[in-house]
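Q: Here's a chain of 159 amino acids. Please give me its 3D structure as tokens.
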Amino acid sequence: MSKRSEFATFIDAGTLVAPDYVLLGEGITSAAINYNAQTTDETYINQDSGTTEIDSYRPTMPIDAKHIETDEALDYLDGLRRTRPVGDAAKTKIVNVWMYETAVGGAYPAEEQDVSVQFDTFGGDGGTKNSMSLTLNYMGDPVQGTFNPTTATFTETSA
């Protein structure tokens, strides 16, 4: 089984014209994809046990972090939080990188995903560093490809 450090997520802290993928890592204590399967349950009249069909997924990635002022990703998110973005202003992209797979030319299998950034809490208990919790809400289907962490470049896989 691979370690959590071998599943990396990069967030686009740049613009549509000039993406700038930075690693979500320093200060982040928890981040996992919740796939949130949307299902339909049926029990037919000739059955005692029902059937569950998977209709779709609505993935999210809740993130818990201690604010570190020198981390580029957390600086980007904290700046975004202060504007309380909605609509298009709350949208960006992430790339999930499967670094436990074999790299080819320095690039690992990856998926690029549109997300909206939802801020949940900020602050914390007295005497502690400020903490921030947020949720990355996945939007639509991911784009499959590869990501080179050294150059921070995503390349879509040809269909």
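Q: Can you summarize the key feature?
A: The domain at 4-36+57-156 is CATH 2.30.110 (Pnp Oxidase; Chain A).
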